[in-house]
Amino acid sequence: MLIAAFQVPAALAVVSALFTAALAQRLEPQINTWNSTFELTAEHIAAAGLTPGLAQSINVAVRFEQTNWATGSVLADPFYTSLPGNASNAPAGSLLKLEAYTDVSTYTIAPALALSRFVYQSRTFNGTLVPVSAYILWPYLPRGGASQAPVVVWGHGTSGIYAECAPSHVRNLWNQFTAPYTLALAGYAVVAPDYAGLGVPFYPNGDLIVHPYGLSPAHGNDLLYAAQAAKAAFPSRLTRDFVVMGHSQGGGAAWAAAEQQVKLKLPGYLGTIALAPTTDGLGLARTVGLVGVASIQVANAIISVFPNVSFSDILTPLGLASNQLLEQVQGCNSAYNALALPLLFSGAVLSQPEFEDGYYINRWQNISLTGGKDFQGPLLVLHGTADGSIPESFTSDAVEATCKRYPRNQLHYVRAQNVGHTSILYATQQLWMDWLDDRFGLGHSSAEARSEDSSHASSQTAARKRCTVSAVGTDTPRPLSQYQSELSYYLMLSQDIYTIA
């Protein structure tokens, strides 16, 4: 999603109050569990014009992030910084380097799971070859009982825009039980790219790799090529067949992968699951009046695509100072929210008014849109009606536009009543798990699913079934108001026996 991980409800004043309370409760240093001593310098504080309170909030947020690094800084980890000689010219989808056995003792992955990391070749939106890091989360027992584990390529939600924001070096792999752990515990091998610019920091020639945040077609390339490279790394342990799945930013990436697959036609592709996807991030930012805050995140990406645009074209001096501060400290979601939300509620102007509806930002919106385009199905889309980060109406509009233009493509849209942005993964877990089983031929209804793809089915019947919409949550065992709305916990490494629940 375009506005990081915080919610965008109708009444910003309510969020302001909640945010103030959250800062008081959550952004207090916990020295007994945090192993970071990060401190903003006087130069940082002066350059960004930070108040003492805001500086302390950012300090706490960055300490929290750094404490959750499993492998230290990516900038000091040869796995990310040392590339092989063929990294400049190996074809997209090539395996560049492999860490077959990753030490999981510093991660907080679930029991009975194992981890590998690898670097592979992908392509940017402009077609440039780019090295990308990824992890594979291994099941103990492959689903279906075969020696090869079926592959789900996972597209993560917004973690940040800098190299240190790579899920592969975060203790809980960023999304923990929302999907990766759940999938692997169910017997699927989870192949999870960090996305270009997250993890591997530099091209082979030493140039910085910019994360093209919000540019879903580029993220879609990363997902598809990761499947190829993972299979090359473990040909006897992973299936060639794979499903692409993602949430939020990763949901848009997964949908875009289905669109990219129309021309790439990579072998083994079985379909896509997109949950709470970003379909029009800039449109969302405009709708809720957050273009300025969003510009801090996308300025680097816009310039990477349109090099004749400068930072001063996009950002005001305050916006530029905020952008530079986050880059200098490699601040990810927590740090971004700690900085951006107070600026938002103070009414600070972060982006140049003439840029907010100018030529380049409109071009950016057009190339980053997902939906309304041809795609290779089947495509399962799920979204909660109580999503405060990406309103369900954006996905509904994208589905409607897609089905109108491509009514014979296989797309099923599920609206989950009173379900939020992250909780969509939990509320609909049975649905997407059954869908995965069907695609891999492991489920009870796999024969029925395959019959819909059969050439023997009448075209009229197939057309009626191609684009469908349904709803869940209309008859829950308990009133909808009684269900936990979103995550209220995080995972931390346990080093003391009394902390084990």
From TrEMBL:
Pfam families: Abhydrolase_6 (PF12697). GO terms for biological process: lipid catabolic process. Keywords: Signal. One of its GO terms (molecular function) is triacylglycerol lipase activity. Residues 1-24 form the signal peptide. Residues 171-424 form the AB hydrolase-1 domain. Residues 447-469 are annotated as: Disordered. The keyword 4Fe-4S does not apply. Gene3D superfamilies: alpha/beta hydrolase. This is AB hydrolase-1 domain-containing protein. It comes from Stachybotrys chlorohalonatus (strain IBT 40285). The lineage of its organism: Eukaryota, Fungi, Dikarya, Ascomycota, Pezizomycotina.
